[in-house]
């Protein structure tokens, strides 16, 4: 798999986690669950962007 594709896939996967955190917020689930989802999503998106822009 190319580095471009893997970076984009990680960024998309991170966006799904961020969207899940937003959905959990609107469902009024506990704050800790929202924070975990958001932190994981942001970390995946940032790492995907790092791979995309560093190794391309």
From TrEMBL:
<keyword id="KW-0472">Membrane</keyword>
<feature type="transmembrane region" description="Helical">
    <location>
        <begin position="33"/>
        <end position="55"/>
    </location>
</feature>
<keyword id="KW-1133">Transmembrane helix</keyword>
<keyword id="KW-0812">Transmembrane</keyword>
<protein>
    <recommendedName>
        <fullName>Amidotransferase</fullName>
    </recommendedName>
</protein>
């Amino acid at each position: 798999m190319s580095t471009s594709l893997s970076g984009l896939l990680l960024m998309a996967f991170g966006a799904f986690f961020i969207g899940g955190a937003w959905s959990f917020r609107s469902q009024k689930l506990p704050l800790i669950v929202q924070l975990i989802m958001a932190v994981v999503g942001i970390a995946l998106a940032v790492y995907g962007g790092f791979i995309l822009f560093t190794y391309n």
